[in-house]
Amino acid sequence: MKLIMSIVNSDDAGRLVAALTQAGYRATTISTTGGFLRQGNATIFVGTEDENVPRVLQLIQENCHTRTQYVNPLPPVMEPGEIYIPTPVDVQVGGATVFVLEVSESARF
Ligand code: 2BA
Ligand code: 2BA
Questions:
Q1: For the stretch 37-53, what's the b/e string if a residue is b when 16 or more beta carbons lie within 10 angstroms of its beta carbon?
Q2: Deepest of 1, 7, 78, 101, by most Cβ within 10 A of its Cβ?
Q3: Closest ligand 2 atom number to CA of residue 3
Q4: H/E element holding 49?
Q5: Which one of 31, 97, 101 would you pick to mutate in the ligand 1 pocket, going by the greatest count of ligand atoms within 8 A of its CB?
Q6: CB 47 within 8 A of CB 104
Q7: Which tens digit of pLDDT belongs to each residue from 71-89?
Q8: What pTM does this model have?
Q9: CA of 46 to the centre of ligand 2 (A)
């Protein structure tokens, strides 16, 4: 058995969970925050048998889209009198960042 942990854009999470449950998979969503942009995203956990992993990954790929976001980089360390003019840079935000973990045991009581 595997636990598929998928970090996705909050805007894609609802559609992805609907697609997963419609296809018969079980899922849990938690609200998370990315360390770099410090913006909300969603982490979706799917526990499933090994043979289902490719299908789940396909559903994740089909339902999550890459976006470009403009962010102001953190200011550098400055000497007194120096001026820093921030220039926004564009950052490509996935799609989905997916980790597939081995499950040693699972139970429902
Ligand atoms: P954030 O940490 O807010 O990162 C948003 C996007 O900023 C990333 O998109 C990446 O393009 C860029 N980025 C992040 N850290 C960076 C760094 N140290 N230097 C330069 N650019 C950086 P994605 O890679 O698609 O990641 C989207 C979200 O997925 C991340 O949000 C984070 O919450 C999560 N994530 C991605 N990789 C991860 C990892 N290896 N471990 C844990 N969480 C991860
Ligand atoms: P929910 O997804 O809200 O599911 C509530 C209950 O609805 C489930 O109880 C199950 O009886 C049923 N159910 C859920 N998805 C279904 C599906 N695709 N087809 C048919 N019936 C479905 P539990 O199995 O006791 O699960 C309680 C909660 O534990 C779930 O809430 C979910 O958040 C989490 N969960 C359970 N199995 C999971 C798994 N394999 N991966 C990730 N999260 C899981």
A1: eeeebbbbebbbeeebe
A2: 7
A3: 41
A4: none
A5: 97
A6: no
A7: 877 777 888 888 888 888 8
A8: 0.91
A9: 10
